[in-house]
C-alpha cells in the first residue's frame, strides 16, 4: 500500500442534513468531470445507475468476484502477524514505515487541534482501523470517544486488546477515551445500525490507507464514503490517505512492462492504457510480500462522489508536499526525530545503512559533501523515497 499518496481533507458543510441527493444528479456530475479517463467506464457506471439490467449475468459474476475480493482482504489482514518493535526495527523499510506513521501523526494532531477550536468533546470514527496503529495518536489528541471499524475480525480483536492494555497501563488520573469496536465490511454494510449509541455523531472520520480497497465498484466506494461521512457533524472532517493514481499511471506508462518498482516495492497491473474508474486493479508488493489487490482511486471522481454527502475538499497533498510543508514546523521536526522517521546519514560508528546497494544514498552523499550542510542528515534510501512518493 505504501506507494502513492494523497492526503485528503474534506470538510462537511452545514447543508449536511439534506444529503440524500438523487443518484442521477451525481451521475451527471461524474460525466461532466470526466476528463482523460476512459469514457466507457463512465457509461457503464451510468448504465448501472439507470437500472438497465441488460448484462445482468455479468453483473452477478462481478458481484461474486467483489465479495470474494472482500474475503481475501479480510483473510490477508487477519493473517498478518503483529510483529514486535525489535522485529520492526530490523525491516529494510523501517524508516519509510516510521515516515508514513509520522505523516499520520501530524495530520491527526492538526485536525484534532482544529476541531477543538469549536468542540470540547471530540468523537472519532477510525474507518479501517487495522490493529489499532493510531490508538496512541487518539490518546495523545485527548479525544473523548472512538469507534473503530475494520473488515478483519482478528485485527479488531487485537485493536481492542491494545486499547484495553493502554487503559490498564495508563496512570489512574489519565483520561482514556471510551471506545467501540466493530467488525464490518464498510464497503457493503452500514455502520450506523451497529453503533451502541444510535444518536452518535462524529467530529472526525479517519480513513488511513483504506479507501483504495473499496474502489472495486461504484457501489462499494459509495458505501465506504457513506459510512465515512453520513454521521459527521456539520463542520466535521474526513481525513484520509490513498495512493496517487496520477503518479501510479505515470510510472506505469514510463515502464517497458506492466509493472514498476525497485528493491523495496513493486506495483503490477494486468495491462496498460485502460484505466476504468472502478475496478482498476493492481497488485502491490512490499519487501517481496504481495499484498491483496488494490484499486486505483481517481481523485476527481472521489471528490465528486463525496459531494453526495455534502463534503467539500479543503486540502490535498502528496506525501512529499505534505512532508515539505509540515517539517518546517519545529514541533513536527522534533517528532520526526523522536519517531526516527528519517535515517541518519552518514550513520554513526555502530550504525549501518538500511541498504548497501549502489546508488541508494547518492542523493544524501551529494548534500553531505556541501560544507554548509548540517551533518548528520536525515534521509531515506532512494528506493524508499520512490515508494513513498507514489502516495
Ligand atoms: C493498510 S491497513 C491500514 C490500517 C490502519 N488504518 C493504519 O493506518 O494503520 C488497511 C486496513 O483496511 C481494512 N479494510 C480493507 N477493506 C475494508 C473494508 N471493506 N471494510 C473495512 N475495513 C477494510 C483492512 O482490513 C486493513 O486493516
Automatic annotation (TrEMBL):
<feature type="compositionally biased region" description="Polar residues">
    <location>
        <begin position="380"/>
        <end position="391"/>
    </location>
</feature>
<feature type="domain" description="MRNA cap 0 methyltransferase">
    <location>
        <begin position="91"/>
        <end position="391"/>
    </location>
</feature>
<keyword id="KW-0539">Nucleus</keyword>
<feature type="binding site">
    <location>
        <position position="213"/>
    </location>
    <ligand>
        <name>S-adenosyl-L-methionine</name>
    </ligand>
</feature>
<feature type="compositionally biased region" description="Low complexity">
    <location>
        <begin position="33"/>
        <end position="44"/>
    </location>
</feature>
<feature type="binding site">
    <location>
        <position position="150"/>
    </location>
    <ligand>
        <name>S-adenosyl-L-methionine</name>
    </ligand>
</feature>
<feature type="region of interest" description="Disordered">
    <location>
        <begin position="26"/>
        <end position="69"/>
    </location>
</feature>
<comment type="function">
    <text>Catalytic subunit of the mRNA-capping methyltransferase RNMT:RAMAC complex that methylates the N7 position of the added guanosine to the 5'-cap structure of mRNAs. Binds RNA containing 5'-terminal GpppC.</text>
</comment>
<dbReference type="InterPro" id="IPR016899">
    <property type="entry name" value="mRNA_G-N7_MeTrfase_euk"/>
</dbReference>
<keyword id="KW-0694">RNA-binding</keyword>
<feature type="binding site">
    <location>
        <position position="128"/>
    </location>
    <ligand>
        <name>S-adenosyl-L-methionine</name>
    </ligand>
</feature>
<feature type="binding site">
    <location>
        <position position="185"/>
    </location>
    <ligand>
        <name>S-adenosyl-L-methionine</name>
    </ligand>
</feature>
<keyword id="KW-0949">S-adenosyl-L-methionine</keyword>
<keyword id="KW-0506">mRNA capping</keyword>
<keyword id="KW-0808">Transferase</keyword>
<dbReference type="GO" id="GO:0003723">
    <property type="term" value="F:RNA binding"/>
</dbReference>
<keyword id="KW-0489">Methyltransferase</keyword>
<dbReference type="GO" id="GO:0005634">
    <property type="term" value="C:nucleus"/>
</dbReference>
<comment type="similarity">
    <text>Belongs to the class I-like SAM-binding methyltransferase superfamily. mRNA cap 0 methyltransferase family.</text>
</comment>
<dbReference type="InterPro" id="IPR039753">
    <property type="entry name" value="RG7MT1"/>
</dbReference>
<dbReference type="Pfam" id="PF03291">
    <property type="entry name" value="mRNA_G-N7_MeTrfase"/>
</dbReference>
<feature type="region of interest" description="Disordered">
    <location>
        <begin position="348"/>
        <end position="391"/>
    </location>
</feature>
<feature type="binding site">
    <location>
        <position position="104"/>
    </location>
    <ligand>
        <name>S-adenosyl-L-methionine</name>
    </ligand>
</feature>
<feature type="binding site">
    <location>
        <position position="208"/>
    </location>
    <ligand>
        <name>S-adenosyl-L-methionine</name>
    </ligand>
</feature>
<dbReference type="InterPro" id="IPR029063">
    <property type="entry name" value="SAM-dependent_MTases_sf"/>
</dbReference>
<dbReference type="GO" id="GO:0004482">
    <property type="term" value="F:mRNA 5'-cap (guanine-N7-)-methyltransferase activity"/>
</dbReference>
<keyword id="KW-0507">mRNA processing</keyword>
<dbReference type="InterPro" id="IPR004971">
    <property type="entry name" value="mRNA_G-N7_MeTrfase_dom"/>
</dbReference>
<protein>
    <recommendedName>
        <fullName>mRNA cap guanine-N(7) methyltransferase</fullName>
        <ecNumber>2.1.1.56</ecNumber>
    </recommendedName>
</protein>
